[in-house]
Amino acid sequence: MQQRSPVQIAQLYGSVASALVGGVVAAYAVAESRVDDFSFSDGLTSVVITPQWAGATAAVVAAVGVALLHRWGRGGLASVFAAVGALVIALPAFVPVSASISVTLNAMGAGIFLAAAAYPTKSHRAAQIALALGLTAATLYFGAADLWRDRVPRWSLTLPGDSYPAPSTVPVWILLAATLLVGGVAAVARPNQEPGDIDTRLVILGVVLPLAFTALYVTLGSTSTSPGSWVTAVAIAVAVTVALAWRLSPHDGRFILAGLAVSAVSVSTTRFSSDWTWAMPAGAAALALGVVVGWKRPMPQLGLGLLGVTALSGLSDSPLTTVSYVVVLPLALGLAVTSCLPVAVGAVSSGAVLPFTLALFSVSSTFLEPAAQEFGWSNGPLVEYGPVSVNTPIHLAVLAATATIVVAMVAIHLKRVRPAVVT
């Protein structure tokens, strides 16, 4: 048997590691940039400090970056993207940057870095799974970051003469290591992508969806909205997503709909205590099991069904909610994501970012309690049993999230695609 060269080894296995690291770094950077007082003010001018703006900006930049790299770029340009993205993220570590400006700056860097990580994943199922799970898992379980770091407060409102520069969202040494990995893999990657072989429908979706979500957030779904307006915003967001996904190829559209379902399950958030004992290993094992089952026997409907069960468990405010978000959610995530891949690179990058692009579920829903709107922060019920706590919103939000997952399941069923081809 002919021995593989170092370049071949890097192409086979390096793209998986690069995609995973790139997805985690990009998602973590977006989540970490959250400004603590973003809910204290409202209106068009304050939208640029919201998590919705951060997620939308990163998603749009990533969609455009992926299209540019696969239309005109080569591995060398993708490496430049990785370096530039990391430099933009790390800029606050070297130059004082206010929290309000850092949100947009950081999101742009995360989007550029994500585009570089996505570049080598063309027709590489394992790499696409790694990228998608890196983005979604890091977003859904961002609360686990409290186990190893003390978060530095980020304030956009300051007194005259006071300055609160925002630190880098990702430590510089981690960014350096990630850049070497992502940039190095991209430099030797040879994805099977001919110039001009870009689905413009994917680019349109990658740009239009985040902008539409942001418009809905500002007009109907901000942190000061009423439950009725929030439900209206969710209904419109779901309708727009399904309509745009329906125009795509069957496999691409299915993954976008799966991303919509994953974003809906973020309606309840998970936090881990220092005594995490069984929670982290159990979740990791469940995620691995879902990936293995989805790889050998793709079952996207079952995966989305388990996501629906997880979201619906938020009604109980009991140990069932904790078990669902610690064990059932990672199992469903691994199964749903793996079952829907491979797809076009643009579909992976646009679908996997929906959990932090559609902030109506992960952010706005937690402010639907009257007291939360009055005082400017969320005080939803905290379901805490042992090493894990789950913050659940009002029951209306849980039901709306569950209904969104059902809509995604029905739409996927109606598209009637064959199982993904293993490559």
Low-confidence runs? 374-385, 419-423
Q: Give the strand line-up of the largest sheet.
A: 1-3-2
Q: Could you tell me the mean pLDDT?
A: 87
Main structural class: mainly alpha
Strand content: under 5%
Secondary-structure element pattern, one letter each: HHHHHHHHHEHHHHHHHEEH
Question: Terminal Cα separation, in Å?
Answer: 21 Å
The portion of residues assigned to helices is: 55-70%
What's the gyration radius in Å? 20 Å
The main sheet comes to: 3 strands, antiparallel
Q: Let me know the number of strands.
A: 3
Describe the structure.
With 423 residues, the protein is mostly helical. Helix content is 63%, strand content 3%. The chain contains 17 helices and three strands. It has helices spanning 6-32, 51-71, 75-90, 99-118, 125-140, 172-188, 200-219, 227-246, 250-265, 279-296, 300-312, 319-339, 345-352, 354-357, 359-362, 370-375, 395-415; strands at residues 269-272, 382-385, 388-391. It has a three-stranded antiparallel sheet with strand order 1-3-2, with helices on one face. A hairpin with a 2-residue loop joins strand 2 and strand 3 (388-391). The chain is globular.
